[in-house]
Design brief:
By secondary structure, this protein is mainly alpha-helical. It has 2 domains: 1-40, N-terminal domain of TfIIb, CATH 2.20.25; 48-236. 58% of the residues lie in helices and 8% in strands. The chain has helices at residues 32-38, 69-78, 83-96, 102-122, 127-148, 163-193, 199-216, 223-236, and strands spanning 14-17, 20-23, 29-31, 48-51, 54-57. A 3-stranded antiparallel sheet has the order 1-2-3. A two-stranded antiparallel ribbon has the order 4-5. A hairpin with a 2-residue loop joins strand 4 (48-51) and strand 5 (54-57). It starts with 13 loop residues before the first strand and ends with a helix.
Length: 238
């Protein structure tokens, strides 16, 4: 479990009261969103990741595909189970696609996630190699999120009176929504396929998904539905 501390007194003891969290040390109240903000170990391109094997620091850019698309396509032909090739092909094709064509590629990653994790588990790797393989998959998801979250001209999202800007704004919202699903799915798949063995990695993925969700929640028409989903995953990281 990730440990959080009260901003006022430093206590790490909290009690739940309806929709609020109460610090038992000083009585300060926090909303669910504020509790999330207390955590300082959310996955990002410069953060330290925590796992059962300790702290591992990775930079998102380290996971960027280092070979051209043709290389990974050839690798996949040689070995249809090459998860690294599968993910990098999806990423590189998305990178060349128009902004409005990115969402289907993110969905492909979501659908590929459980297949890849099952393949890793069935390979009967050593724990260290298994961890490295999972990190590699998570790393590709990270570079995907960093690359495509703000693809396109972000300034158009502020021009709400312009029809084109509204269309871009909607596409951006849906794209980020799919990225949240990518991280939630990855965390769920880790938990179910590896029977909780990599709980901390799953929690990190949930927290990343929640942070992305907070970027778009104000744009949602059905906010109650999305808030319910956020709270579902917020419970998983407590």
């Amino acid at each position: 479990m990730m440990e959080i501390h009260c901003k006022d007194c430093g206590s790490n003891k909290f009690a739940r009261k309806e929709e609020m969290y109460i610090c038992t040390g000083c009585g300060r109240e926090y909303s669910a969103f504020e509790v999330i903000e207390l955590t300082d170990d959310v996955i990002s391109d410069q953060k330290t990741f925590e796992s059962k094997k300790g702290s591992i620091t990775e930079k998102t850019k380290d996971f960027h595909p280092k070979k051209p698309l043709s290389y990974y396509e050839s690798a996949l032909k040689r070995n249809p189970d090459d998860y690294n090739a599968q993910l990098n092909i999806i990423y590189l094709k998305a990178d060349k696609a128009k902004v409005t064509e990115i969402i289907p590629y993110i969905r492909k990653m979501i659908n590929t996630s459980p297949k890849i994790l099952k393949s890793i588990k069935d390979s009967h790797l050593t724990e260290e190699k298994e961890m490295e393989a999972i990190w590699e998959v998570g790393g590709v998801f990270q570079i995907t999120a960093v690359t495509f979250k703000n693809s396109g001209d972000s300034s158009t999202r502020k021009m709400t009176n312009d029809a084109y800007a509204q269309r871009v704004n909607k596409e951006w919202y849906l794209r980020v929504l799919e990225l949240t699903n990518l991280f939630f799915t990855f965390g769920d798949d880790l938990e179910s396929i590896f029977d909780g063995k990599y709980e901390e990695l799953a929690i990190n993925s949930y927290k990343t998904g929640i942070w992305y969700y907070l970027d778009i929640i104000k744009l949602a028409d059905d906010q109650d539905v999305h808030i319910k989903k956020i709270r579902h995953y917020e419970e998983k990281i407590r």
